[in-house]
Structures are given as structure tokens and as C-alpha cells.
Amino acid sequence: MKSFLSRFKQATCAIFAGLCVTLSAEQRPNILMIIADDASRDSFGIYGSKTAQTPGFDEIAKKGVIFTQAYNCNPKCAPSRACLLTGRYSWQLEEACNHSPFLSDQWKFYPFLLEKTGYRIGYTGKGWGPGIWKGKNVGRELHLDNPAGHPFNSVTLKPPYKGISKIDYAGNFEQFLKTTPQDQPFCFWMGVKEPHRKYQRNSWKREGRDLSKISVPSYYPDNETIRGDLADYEIEVEWFDKHIVRAMKYLEAAGKLQNTLILVTSDHGMPFPRVKGQVYDDGFRVPFIARWDGKIKPNRKVTDFVTFPDFAPTLMEIAQAKTPPQMTGASFVTQLLSDKSGRIDPKRNHTLLGKERHDIGRTDDELLSVSYPVRAIRNDRFLYVRNFTPHRWPTGNPELGWRNTDGGPTKDYLTALQKDSPEYHFYQMNFGKRPAEELYDITADPDCVKNLAGDTAQAETLKSLWQQLESALKAQGDPRVLGKGDIFDYYPNSNIKNQRKIYKKPDYDPIKIFEEYQRAKK
Fold first, then answer.
1. Domain at 24-346, CATH homologous superfamily
2. With b meaning 16 or more CB within 10 Å and e meaning fewer, what string describes 295-304?
3. Where in the chain is the domain with CATH 3.30.1120?
4. Which of 29, 205, 319, 485 has the fewest CB atoms within 10 Å distance of its CB?
5. Phi-psi group of 408: left, alpha or beta (phi > 0 → left; psi -120 to 50 → alpha; rest → beta)
6. Got the DSSP string for 390-407?
7. What is 168-215 written as a DSSP string?
8. Of 1-10, 135-144, 361-370, which has the strongest mean pLDDT?
9. For residues 246 and 108, what is the distance between their CA atoms, to the nearest angstrom?
């Protein structure tokens, strides 16, 4: 029986928030979001990996639903997570479209919306970030919480390798469960920081891994350096999976497995060249599975397109809470609860993608820390990419270190290639400038290495996809296609100290530059 205090709290929430539905924990499901940091879709057994051992992930998939066409909207940590938490497309998020911004308090985040309706919320590890959340409503510059919830990070462990965080993600989830009233529904974000770099180099040797079994994408040369780097990465994918296994045990021990919607995904692909931060399939097509015993029919595969802006409205609907107008994504509750596999809704046959500025280190004449604006559309067969400033370096200026690619052995190998090397085309593929338009036949070319944009046989496809993309972006109010996209160059990056260092400008002030830009536009 519910306590008087619990009933009073729920009723008060309904009166003052206007959002709450007075339902018991049994009627409103718990929500567990498990999200990896930089894990590619194909690194999990259920998606075809032959080398990474991911029994926890695969078990959830078998007892739930696998989405084969899930996308992150913008393939970098902060913007992809902003899309997921706010239910908005990246280009609708102003400063939050960029990586490492000063995040304003104008956005509503689904965990805090659910908290107003009676949910207990929390997160561990990595929530939204990197960047600075300036919450005006709390009277201080840095918010103690995170858009993902209230922090639970006190439980730690000794990691097996350098580069792995000491945060015990599953242990913190267990602590959260123990302190959550039995009659209160919860929404928890388990943000594992792996397999983000840096890795302890040659960890694969200690593990006795067989490099001959590692699959190397066609945009890399096949050698021991690359294979070893990929093997070290897979060790951290497996670390992520170990926390999934433990989290499921804690959930079951607490008696809450039956009424918990479990979602598992990653913010984008692996932290390697031409993947993380890049608008190609391996960067923005993410793993996504969901389990909800008794509600989601097990062992299903859904091919409907879903994207990160769709998550927040989905969870609001699942929690029987009012979805705010801010959320422009489309709920996929139907796809979760259907008893069918394949394409549930014929209209969910494509997705929109894009990016603006990710990391610092790209210049354009006197402008510093400028963006590399891209928009794309992906359907069942084709990926069409529009690069709006092809004169800029897509991964950042070479003399500044190609900073939109994480450091590591693969990057070191590729950037050391000289023009007279027979492998130099791999450097160009990963770090060179790109044409204004790109078109890839995903069926024949899943690695996106053969650009068909100049193929006359594909001219009509190219034209049709651009028209579809442009029309959709205009309908969404994208500043980039409305002739106002330069604003993304001016939103200040919060890492001011590092910018002053790399540009050798000790007085560089991106906040002042942005304020001057705003005044000039008035």
C-alpha cells in the first residue's frame, strides 16, 4: 500500500506541474537508458561482430527488439546527446548543435520533465557533455546536476586498464535502486564512458587476442597497427557490456526487471578517423535495442528509421506524460510495442543528419573555430551528403592537428603517410577535403568509399535526394538552408583556454566575439 506521503507528493505534482498522471509504479514503467561513449553498431555480436564478446547486449536484444535503422542525427558526443535529451533535431538546438558549447537553460530535458510527474531521476558516468550548462534558474554559473539527471558517481572500482574510468556505473545504478522508494517509478541514465579513448596501447597482447580475426574497414590499410588499435577498442566495448550484465542482475534482484523499459545505444561510432564526428554510416548509424518484459515482443527486428530526436517524445508517451511542443521528434512507441518485425510504418523510410562545429582547430581566414557544416539524408539504399563549405578542412586544419579526430595509433599512422606512399589515398580518404556533394549506395558500399555524385546514371537520384533534404530542413527552420547558417561559426566553444593556446592568441574571447556578432545582426 502506498504511504500517505507518496500519495500526497504525487497529487501535489499533478496540481502544480499540470503534467502528472496519478498512476502507481506498477502502471508507469521504470526507464533505464544505457548509453556507450563511442561504440560502433557493428561492434556488438547481435549486429554481426565476430570478435567482440557482448553477451549482455545480445541477451537484451534477444529478449526485446533490435532496431536496424537507428541514427544519432549528429555524430559527436554533446550534440547527439542534446538531441536525445531534448527531442529536437540538431540544427534546431542553436548553440547545442555544436560540440562543447555553453548550453543555455532554454531547453527542456526529458529526465527533468519526468521528475515533475513523480519519477525519481539519476545518472552515472557521462550524461550530456562535453560543455558547460549555464542554468540561470539555479543562481550559479555551473549547474551541479546534468541534463541527464542527478549525479550518482560515488561508487568506484579499480579499472583493468589505463584509460578506463574508475566509475562503477553498474554499482552506482545499484545504489540508486537501493535508495529509490519501491512505489516510485524511476528514470536512470547509465552513461558508460567507454570505449572512448585513450586506450592502454597493446592491451590486446595481455588479453591474448588474435589479430587475424579483426575486421578492418576498407577506408583503412590492413596492418598490425590498425588491427591492434581496433582490438584495444574492442576490449573497452566489452567493458561496457560487463556493466550491462551487472545492471540487469541488480535490476532483477530489486524486483524491478518486469516493469522496466531498458534501452541500450551509443552516442556515435568508434573514436577512429572517418567515423566519430563524420557524416558517414559508421559514424551516425548506431546500435539500438530495447527490452520491456511483457510489453515488447522478444526477438524482433524493426527496420523503421528512428533517430535520437525521437527518443524523448517516445519516453514521455511511455511514461504517460505530456509531450511539450519543444520536441519535434516522432514517438516510436508503435514500433516498440508492435508484434511485427520489419517495416512497421512505411513512412519511416529515411532520416536527416548533419553537423556544424565539432572540435576547435579549424580556421577560415580571420575566423577561428569555425564549423564544417554538413547536412545529409539517408534512406534504405542511399546516403546523400551536402558539404556547404568544401574549401574548409572537414577534420580540422592539418597544421593544428586534425582536431576533429581523436588521437591514437590509427590516426598517427594515417597522418604520417606521405604523398609518394602507395597508401596515401587512405590519408586523403580520412583527412582530405571533400566535394560539395557525396552520394553512396549503402547496399553495395556500406563503408561509403565510392562517391557516386559525379555518376551521370545517378544524376536524378542526386537531385531528388537534395530536393527532399532541402525541403525537410526548410520545414524544420534550419538556419543553414535559410541563409543564416553563419551563426554556428559564432556560438562560443566553452574550451577558451585551449583555443587561446592552439591559436596563439592569449586574448581570444569567443564570448565577446559572439556578443559583437549578435549586436551587428540587430
1. Alkaline Phosphatase, subunit A (3.40.720.10)
2. ebbeebebbb
3. 352-476
4. 205
5. left
6. TTS-TT--GGGT-TTS--
7. -HHHHHHHHHHTS-TTS-EEEEEE--TTPSPP-TTHHHHHT--GGG--
8. 361-370
9. 31
Cell numbers 593544428 correspond to what residue? 400
End-to-end Cα, the chain, rounded Å = 59
Under a CB-based contact definition with an 8 Å cutoff, are residues 253 and 10 in contact? no
Give the separation between CA 283 and CA 405, rounded to whole angstroms.
12
- Angle, helices 224-253/55-62, rounded to nearest 10 degrees: 60
Residue 38 is predicted with a pLDDT of 98
Find how far residue 111's CA is from the centre of its chain.
17
Q: What gap in Å lies between CA 61 and CA 46, rounded to an integer?
A: 7
List helix spans (H) across 435-484.
Answer: 459-475
Q: Which residue, chain included where needed, has cell 555518376?
A: 455
Cell 584495444 appears where? 232
Q: What is the pLDDT of residues 402-428, one digit of tens each?
A: 999 999 999 999 999 999 999 999 999
The C-alpha cell that represents 237 in the structure block:
566495448
Cα separation, 261 vs 177, whole angstroms? 15
Q: Report the C-alpha gap between 53 and 44 in whole angstroms.
A: 7
CA dihedral 18, 22, 24, 29 (to 10 degrees): -40
* For range 23-46, the mean pLDDT: 89
pLDDT at position 151: 96
- Identify the bridge partners of residue 146 per DSSP, sorted by sequence position: 149
Domain with CATH 3.40.720.10 in the chain: 24-346
Give the chain's mean pLDDT: 93
Tell which residue, 473, 511, 505, has the closest CA to residue 492.
511
CATH class, 352-476 region? alpha beta
